[in-house]
Design a protein that fits this description.
This protein is of the alpha/beta class and 247 residues long. It contains 7 helices and 11 strands. The protein has a domain of 150 residues: Class I glutamine amidotransferase (GATase) domain (Rossmann fold, 3-Layer(aba) Sandwich). A 9-stranded mixed beta sheet has the order 2-1-3-4-11-10-9-6-7, with helices on both faces. The structure holds zinc ion. The site of zinc ion has 5 residues, from helix 5.
C-alpha cells in the first residue's frame, strides 16, 4: 500500500513539472499581440516593429501591426488583445485614444516597450506618463559608454544575465517611485557633473490597474538589439508581460 502511494506521488510530481515546463514554453503561443509604431523616425520604429513581430510570430503569437494610435479606439481589436507593444517616440495622441489605451491596460491588457517608443511618447500627456512610470528627459553626452547593472538578478527577466556595457544613449528619466526596478545605470558626471553617481533605473516592471507594464530604456537603434543581453531583456520582458506572473 505504501509503495503504491509513493508511486502515485512520483507520477503526480513528474506530471506537475512537465505541465509547468509546457506552460512556460507556450506563454506566447496563440496570444494576441498588437504592435503600434510610429513617431520620430530617428528611432527606426518600423525596423523595431518588424524585428519584434518576426520573433513573436516564431513563438506562434498572433501579431497585428498598426501605424496609428487610432487603433486604440477599435473595440474589436482591443477586446481580444493580450499585449500591446508600442514604439512611438514623441508625436501626439488624441485624448480619446489615450484614454482607450489607459482603460485597456487598467482592465488587464499588458503593455511593453523600450527607449523613446514607450518612455518618451506623447510628451504633453501626463496621464499616459503616470501609467508608464517614467518619462525621458535627457541623454547627457549623446552616445556614451555606460554599464547596465542587474539590480534584481533573481527576477525572471534578468535571471542569469550579468552586468554589461554598451555605447548608446544613457537615458536620464523622471520616475514614479512605485516602479519595480530590475536594472540600473550610474552616471559618471562627465557631461553634467552634478549628476555624478546618480543611479538611474534602466529596466522596470509595474502595474496599472489590472495591467502589467514592462519597460527598458535600451533600444536607441536596431543594432543595439544585436547585444544578446539587450535582446534577452526585451524578449523576456514581453514574455513576462503576457504571463500570469505578477512580480
Ligand atoms: Zn534615442
Amino acid at each position: 500500500m505504501k509503495k503504491k502511494y509513493q508511486y502515485t506521488t512520483l507520477v503526480l510530481c513528474l506530471l506537475t513539472q512537465f505541465l509547468l515546463a509546457q506552460s512556460e514554453n507556450d506563454t506566447l503561443k496563440n496570444k494576441n499581440i498588437l504592435i503600434v509604431y510610429g513617431g520620430w523616425l530617428g528611432h527606426q520604429p518600423e525596423v523595431f516593429a518588424d524585428k519584434i513581430a518576426n520573433w513573436l510570430e516564431a513563438q506562434e503569437a498572433n501579431v497585428t501591426l498598426s501605424e496609428s494610435t487610432g487603433i486604440y479606439l477599435d473595440k474589436t481589436v482591443m477586446s481580444k488583445t493580450d499585449l500591446i507593444i508600442q514604439h512611438i517616440t514623441m508625436s501626439t495622441i488624441k485624448s480619446s485614444e489615450s484614454k482607450a489605451l489607459q482603460n485597456a491596460v487598467a482592465n488587464g491588457t499588458a503593455l511593453a516597450g523600450c527607449h523613446g517608443g514607450l518612455g518618451d511618447a506623447f510628451r504633453n500627456d501626463t496621464e499616459y506618463q503616470y501609467m508608464i512610470g517614467g518619462q525621458f528627459v535627457k541623454h547627457p553626452g549623446g552616445q556614451v559608454d555606460y554599464t547596465v547593472k542587474i539590480s534584481e538578478p533573481e527576477h525572471i527577466i534578468t535571471e542569469g544575465i550579468k552586468d554589461f556595457s554598451l555605447n548608446s544613449e544613457q537615458y536620464y528619466m523622471h520616475l514614479d517611485p512605485s516602479i519595480n526596478v530590475i536594472a540600473t545605470t550610474v552616471f559618471n558626471g562627465d557631461h553634467d557633473p552634478w549628476i555624478e553617481g546618480v543611479e538611474m533605473p534602466v529596466v522596470w516592471t509595474k502595474t496599472y490597474g489590472k495591467g502589467k507594464i514592462f519597460y527598458s530604456s535600451l533600444g536607441h537603434s536596431a543594432d543595439i538589439f544585436e547585444i544578446p543581453e539587450v535582446w534577452q531583456i526585451m524578449t523576456r520582458g514581453v514574455t513576462w508581460a503576457v504571463s500570469k506572473n505578477m512580480n
